[in-house]
Amino acid sequence: MRLYTFFRSSASFRVRIALNYKGLRYEHAGVSLPKGEHLEAGYKSVNAQGLVPALEDGGRLLTQSLAIIEYLDEVHPGPKLLPAAPLDRAYVRAFSQIIACEIHPLNNLRTRKYIAKTYKLDEEGVNAWYRHWIAEGFGMMEAFLAQERKHGKYCFRDQVTMADCCLVPQVFNAILYKCDVKPYPTVMRIHEACMKLDAFVAAQPSKQPDAA
Ligand SMILES: N[C@@H](CCC(=O)N[C@@H](CS)C(=O)NCC(=O)O)C(=O)O
Description:
Glutaredoxin; Glutathione S-transferase Yfyf (Class Pi), Chain A, domain 2; 2 domains
């Protein structure tokens, strides 16, 4: 398998965790977002969406991190990242989508670039936008965990799932942007539990070959 990835991309980080946790080896193909490599013709001929991650498996290309993780879980061996029961699977998908749909698109590189240019925001203005959506989204995560009462050591009981693959990269981003994470004790406790596992540690940005 070959993973098109950028060390600081949280969507790529989700897939790196899943690959590591399932014990799947892959070749690293770095795509630099600051250099705009994701928008160049060479990469667009791989992934026409111009986004990372993308995963090549057996000559087929897969895109969109949650779809990639579910595919890996369905066709490859290793510990399961989605629970067996439909209601539990829906719970894990819902938590994952709080991050992938309610937070990440609002804080993505192209969104930040667009608001900076269109509304003439300086760096502090863009960071305030970023922190606003982190606070809203982390509030949703914390409330969801409290309401569902299905969490344990990890988001779903004591089983590592796709939800944890999403939670940890989003916490890394929140810390990078100096967001206040104190109001989210359950999220942070799960983050700390995950970061005791080799699969998460090896997937973090600073351990990637393309880390600056
Ligand atoms: N929903 C997509 C998001 C992919 C995505 O937006 N990746 C970011 C990096 S984390 C990216 O390529 N951004 C490029 C840009 O915004 O121009 C997924 O889950 O894979």
